[in-house]
Amino acid sequence: MSAGAPPAPSRTLSEHESKQRIRAAGIATAPEMLAADVAGAIAASREIGFPVVVKLCGDGIAHKTERGLVRLGLADEAAVHRAATDLLAAARPADGPVGLLVARMIRGNRELIAGCLDDPTFGRCVMLGIGGVFAEALADVAFRLVPLSARDAHEMIDDLRTQAILGPFRGEPAIDRDAVATTLLALSRLAETSPEIVSVDLNPLVISDGRPLAVDALVEVRGR
């Protein structure tokens, strides 16, 4: 790119497509299915097993929570029917084609955030931080340049100041540091081998039985 040239255009993939990309890279997610309509969402919830989460999903929808496009802890088919109906009714013309993303409800008292990005000064890097209700208060994050080694990944975990959250917590086991490192190494490989990817945002990584699961993901790619 010549000096002063505008940056290449980019677009954000839907959550469903974003998760397909990260799963292929080896990042763990909750079981989920994409449904086209209310009946499909009910069928998907039966297959996945209750309780479930239902979200409105599409390439034009990046900030679902702010718009109220997420329904959590749906315990039966009637709840899924109501949620799916409401979500489809909330779609806007600017959202483009939409579907209903149905996923298993994952519960955990701790959340991490992770991702990769192109820093204008340093280049491609991977980020890990404390997420959830602690994120803004603590601003506890660590960065490393791509490519990461296994040692780099573990050092990122060690660099977090809030180590108490990583140990046994409220009756849950300590966070599986190897599993977190595996996620960070997968992000590094994505950044290294997929030049079309501008950024990946895993927020949150819910800690379930000590292991991180990406329950939301956004991948930004170059090109329209």
Quick recap of the structure?
The chain is of the alpha+beta class. 29% of the residues lie in helices and 30% in strands. It has two domains: 32-104, Dna Ligase, domain 1 (2-Layer Sandwich); 108-222, D-amino Acid Aminotransferase, Chain A, domain 1 (2-Layer Sandwich).
Task: Write structural notes for this entry.
With 224 residues, the protein is of the alpha+beta class. It has two domains: 73 residues, ATP-grasp fold, A domain (Dna Ligase, domain 1), CATH 3.30.1490.20; 115 residues, 2-Layer Sandwich (D-amino Acid Aminotransferase, Chain A, domain 1). The protein is built from six helices and eleven strands. The strands form two sheets. Strands 1, 6, 7, 8, 9, 10 and 11 form a seven-stranded antiparallel beta sheet that branches. Helix 2 packs across helix 3 and helix 5 crosses helix 6. The chain is globular, with a radius of gyration of 18 Å.
Shape: globular
Total count of strands? 11
Integer count of domains: 2
Name of the CATH first level of the largest domain: Alpha Beta
- The ordered string of helix (H) and strand (E) elements is EHEHEEHEEEHEHHEEE
Tally the helices. 6
- Pick out the low-confidence regions: none
What percentage of the residues does DSSP assign to strands (E)? 25-35%
| Fourth CATH level, the homologous superfamily of the largest domain | ATP-grasp fold, B domain
Separation of termini?
18 Å
Radius of gyration: 18 Å
